[in-house]
């Protein structure tokens, strides 16, 4: 079995790995949230622009203005679809980073469990040694009292 210092080194390395994974997870979740906010902003802008166009259309609109509206809406729809793709990518990245963090945390916990077991085993050995020493001391005292 690994020595205490080796286990402590492994635990320290695993702790650093877990911390790094947690930072990457936080950044990925933040990026996913920002991408979703941008998508919602684009969708809101599209709805607002469509409403304004409907109001303008009731007053009358030229064919050129109508074509411009259609072209702009097509570009906006393309941007929305691109942003949806980014949101999906960021969500996948977040899921990957979460898996990485969970794996790093499991590794850290397993090293800690090994250390705890080693400490418990050493305590048992120490307790047996102490008990044996006390038994020998008691038997010597009993022998010399006779």
Model description:
The chain is mainly α and 146 residues long. It has one domain (4-145): Orthogonal Bundle (Helix Hairpins), CATH 1.10.287. Helix content is 95%, strand content 0%. It contains two helices and no strands. It has helices at residues 4-59, 63-145. Helix 1 (4-59) packs antiparallel against helix 2 (63-145). It is rod-shaped, with a radius of gyration of 34 Å. The model has no long low-confidence stretch (mean pLDDT 92).
**Portion in beta strands:** under 5%
Low-confidence stretches: none
| SSE arrangement, N to C | HH
Number of strands: 0
Number of domains: 1
Distance between the termini: 46 Å
CATH class wording: Mainly Alpha
Shape: rod-shaped
Radius of gyration: 34 Å
Q: Which structural class should the secondary elements be placed in?
A: mainly alpha
Helical segment tally?
2
List the helices and strands and how they pair.
Blueprint: H1 4-59, H2 63-145
Helix pairs in contact: 1-2
In short:
The protein has 146 residues and is mostly helical. It has helices at residues 4-59, 63-145.
Features:
146 residues, mainly alpha, Helix Hairpins, 95% helix, 0% strand, rod-shaped, transport
């Amino acid at each position: 079995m690994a020595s205490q210092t080796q286990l402590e080194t492994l635990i320290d390395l695993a702790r650093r790995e877990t911390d790094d994974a947690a930072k990457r997870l936080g950044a990925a979740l933040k990026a996913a949230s920002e991408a979703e906010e941008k998508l919602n902003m684009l969708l809101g802008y599209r709805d607002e622009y469509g409403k304004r166009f409907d109001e303008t259309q009731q007053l009358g609109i030229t064919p050129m203005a109508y074509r411009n509206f259609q072209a702009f809406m097509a570009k906006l729809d393309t941007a929305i679809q691109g942003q949806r793709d980014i949101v999906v990518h960021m969500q996948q990245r977040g899921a990957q980073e979460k898996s990485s963090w969970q794996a790093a945390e499991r590794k850290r916990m397993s090293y800690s469990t090994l250390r705890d077991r080693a400490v418990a085993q050493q305590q048992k050995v120490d307790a047996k040694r102490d008990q044996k020493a006390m038994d020998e001391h008691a038997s010597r005292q009993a022998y010399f009292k006779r």
